[in-house]
Amino acid sequence: MKKFRLVGPRVIREKRFSICTMVNDWGRYRTLQEAWTKMGFEAGDCEYLACDNVKNNLLDGYAATRLFLEAARGEYVILTHLDSRPLEKKKTLLRILRELDAWDPRWAVLGNAGVEQAALEFVTLGLRMPDYPQKKHPDPFRQVHALDENLLLVKAEARLTVSHDLQGFHLYGLDLCDVARRLGRTCYVARMRWYHASHGTLNENFYRRVREMEKKMTAYRRPKLWGTNCTFLAVSRSPFIRAWARARACWLLRKNEHHTSSERREVWRTGRREPLLFPAYALLWLYKKTGLEKWRKVRLARHNSSPPAHA
To answer: Which 3 state secondary structure label does DSSP give 239?
Structure first.
């Protein structure tokens, strides 16, 4: 009999955590490593992976994510930004992960900010940001459909990846969660303390990536509206649904102190490409002012009030 290797469902991982970062400033990266070390993420059972984007953006978010997930030797792969760091010690994070395993063993991606798509509700449970109000929720976890890229904690055994036909530094968190959900996995925001120093930048490049994502998803998705933590996407060929998504994006930023007036103008400029933007915006105003949106969210909350079956 020729030699062979026996494979099975369990894979022995050399590390507990793989902490992965795209780096455009090595000084800031050293500061980030020190912050992680203070929280107990020592080299013994943790590894630090980085891609060098200092001189030029050699790897974008999609390419770096694919390489990190492939190269990581940890049980959990943490994809993090330079301005995102834990405020919980390693032992606390491990306890949270054990609790999530009991809550829903199908989970594949965990984050600190996400969106529940049915109600288009933004979910943060412990996230600290400049000038950002703390939001309380009785449950330790909230299932979401999209996560913000500042923190994506991936369970290695889920064997996830992201699209090869998309590029850039935006929306790969949404793409990763979509892949996980199509594979029968789930995604969550956890009630854990975490700091993120930035609210992101919304510009023409960002909305170019939005349109690319919409074009890709429209090819195989039924019409729907998708939300991220800073905008909305229309997975549809319908002119009204596209206009509705742009109207919601404009409404989201109309009084948002975390984004500049130039960013708000960029959202409107992008929205005006849709001929039905202003009728959609008027209907959105009625939808919100008449209380229909609040009524719909209450109905959805009652329908989804029961937690998933525990293991």
So the answer is: helix
Look at residue 8 and tell me if it is in a domain: no
pTM of the model: 0.87
Work out the burial of residue 255: count CB atoms within 10 Å of its CB; fewer than 13 is exposed, 13-18 middle, 19 or more buried.
exposed
Of the candidates 148, 168, 196, which is a domain's last residue?
Answer: 196
**Exposed/middle/buried for 79, CB within 10 Å: 0-12, 13-18, 19+?**
buried
Same domain, 183 and 287: no
Q: Which domain holds residue 20?
A: 15-196
On the CB side of 52, CA atoms within 13 Å amount to: 1
- For residue 3, which phi and psi values (nearest 5 degrees)? -65, 150
Half-sphere exposure of residue 132: CA atoms within 13 angstroms, side-chain side: 19
Mean pLDDT split into 10-residue runs, the chain, 311 residues = 79 90 94 95 92 89 96 96 94 97 97 87 85 72 93 96 92 95 96 86 83 87 82 89 92 75 85 92 92 83 55 41
Packing angle between helix 277-289 and helix 239-253, nearest 10 degrees?
60
